[in-house]
């Protein structure tokens, strides 16, 4: 299948096409506070946040950024009120079912990373269907971290490698970064160049602990439902002002 050329639709003139990040990751924080500030139930903030994510995905496509990863639900989020967790599971399922047709039309390739086996079976089914149906798409790579925890990911990778060693299928001397990465949830997905966190929280919250080793981090006070293209432009502009040395002089 022929890969379609990247199109820079409406890219702001002061952004350098050559220096755009190849992969952006987002921690979508502030949905609940956004709703509370408007006297609305927290779930309304999550619904608005879905629209924000859809627009960001299209913005990445329009501006020629080939990969976007969103932190949708962490392993710690199970500790939220049961009503909110149940709503989020239903919301994920409903959005997947509703948006699959558009993702196909827009050539999006979607994947999910995390411990998916404990999710509701109906949601697992929608996840599997969306990944299967979009696997041959050649547009933006959209990764959704669901029931994801960076520490959990590293532990399960260690367990898988240890099992291979125990069975005599792997020599410990053969273990290197490349082999380790092949046992992560994100195998085959590039590392993010830029991490954006909304709502002003100055932490990465157990997100992509291995993969973010050399990512540039941008934190904004803007709550996720209000994170629009203008805010994304500001993040990219600051990213392009950074000097990425990767430990070198």
Could you explain how this protein is built, in words?
This protein has one domain (21-149, 191-241): 3-Layer(aba) Sandwich (Undecaprenyl pyrophosphate synthetase). The chain has 7 helices and 6 strands; from the N terminus they run βααβαβαβααββα. It has a 6-stranded parallel β-sheet, with helices on both faces. Residues 1-6 have low confidence and may be disordered. It is an alpha/beta fold. Helix content is 41%, strand content 14%.
Concise account of the structure shown:
This protein has 249 residues and is an alpha/beta fold. It is 41% helix and 14% strand.
Using brief descriptors, characterize the structure shown.
6-stranded parallel beta sheet; single chain; 6 strands; 249 residues; Undecaprenyl pyrophosphate synthetase; 7 helices; alpha/beta
């Amino acid at each position: 299948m022929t890969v379609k050329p990247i199109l820079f639709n409406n890219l702001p003139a002061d952004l350098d096409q050559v220096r755009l990040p190849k992969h952006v990751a987002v921690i979508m924080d502030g949905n609940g506070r956004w709703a509370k500030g408007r006297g609305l139930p927290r779930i309304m903030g999550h619904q608005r946040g879905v629209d924000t994510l859809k627009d960001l995905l299209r913005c990445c496509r329009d501006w020629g950024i080939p990969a976007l990863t969103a932190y949708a639900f962490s392993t710690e989020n199970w500790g939220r009120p049961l009503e909110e967790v149940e709503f989020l599971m239903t919301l994920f399922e409903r959005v997947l079912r509703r948006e699959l047709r558009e993702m196909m039309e827009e050539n999006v390739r979607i994947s999910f990373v995390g411990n998916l086996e404990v999710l509701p079976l109906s949601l697992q089914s929608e996840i599997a269907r969306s990944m299967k149906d979009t696997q041959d798409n050649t547009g933006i790579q959209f990764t959704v971290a669901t029931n994801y925890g960076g520490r959990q990911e590293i532990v399960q990778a260690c367990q898988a490698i240890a099992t291979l060693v125990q069975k005599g299928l792997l020599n410990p001397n053969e273990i290197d970064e490349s082999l380790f990465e092949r046992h992560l949830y994100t195998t085959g997905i590039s590392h993010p160049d830029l991490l954006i966190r909304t709502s002003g929280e100055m932490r990465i919250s157990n997100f992509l602990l291995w993969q973010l080793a050399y990512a540039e981090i941008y934190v904004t006070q803007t709550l996720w439902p209000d994170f629009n293209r203008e805010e994304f432009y500001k993040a990219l502009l600051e990213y392009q002002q950074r000097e990425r040395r990767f430990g070198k002089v």
